[in-house]
Amino acid sequence: MIAEALNQEFRIKVEPNDHDDLWLQPGRRKISGTAARIVRQVAYHHLTLLVNVDVATLKRSLSSPFDETILTNATRSIRAPAVGYLAQEIPDITVEEVQNVIMESFKKQYLHTEVITLSNVMNDQQFPGVLEYEEKLRKWEWIYGRTPQFILPLYNDRIQVEHGVITGSLENQKLIGSRLPEDVMQAYVGFAVKPIFGINTTKQLAEIKAYLCEVPKDYDPKLIALNATIIAALFTALIYPFYAYLIGDNVVSEKKHTEAY
């Protein structure tokens, strides 16, 4: 329905694929993805539709430094051949235009329709329980506790995690039973995803050192050990090879410069 509506209104070529994604042709550029889930007697469904985006920023947001590192049986996303958006073909298109086109197409297919406009979905009086639900989604139990089982190979360890709790460690048995806290994961991910070129690595390492030194008195020692393990792994896996690469290039460059003279 959406593909037909867009094609008819804007004279473009949008096609659904076998996964119910939408491709903008030519080039099989993915402009829409969909997901569905049935739980008890409730069905959930959502889709996306890219109207105008910064593709470079989008790709960075969807990429992860752990794609090739984490070992898991969880279903992995199927990478699209390319990413696109409607404004590539219709530069002056707006979100409102797309909304109206889809709504009108929906009305034509279904006799009994009603358009509901939500101005403030976080209004607990209008939507009782929404604030409580938001709080639930911010808690550790939802963010980490529902994480599928995975194994994280580190520089000198191999940590197994299930539902956010460490269930195995080759080098440090004291870590078993510890929960992956939000602050540790943020330190790990935040440091790992920063682009190597252009970052102030001295500042990063100083901040990490301060983070490890200024630990509250009641902080679990096992989590301090986990911090240290992760930081050591990051330094070895990311920073040291990068500097070795630069040093190697500089040595080769200096050697060539010397030979030229």
Automatic annotation (TrEMBL):
Record's keyword terms, sorted: Membrane, Transmembrane, Transmembrane helix
PROSITE patterns named among the record's database cross-references: BPL_LPL_CATALYTIC
Gene3D superfamilies named among the record's database cross-references:
Bira Bifunctional Protein, Domain 2 (3.30.930.10)
In alphabetical order, the GO MF annotations are:
lipoyltransferase activity
Pfam families linked: LplA-B_cat (PF21948)
> What family does the Swiss-Prot or TrEMBL record give for this protein?
Belongs to the LplA family.
User: Which protein, by its recorded name, is this?
Assistant: BPL/LPL catalytic domain-containing protein
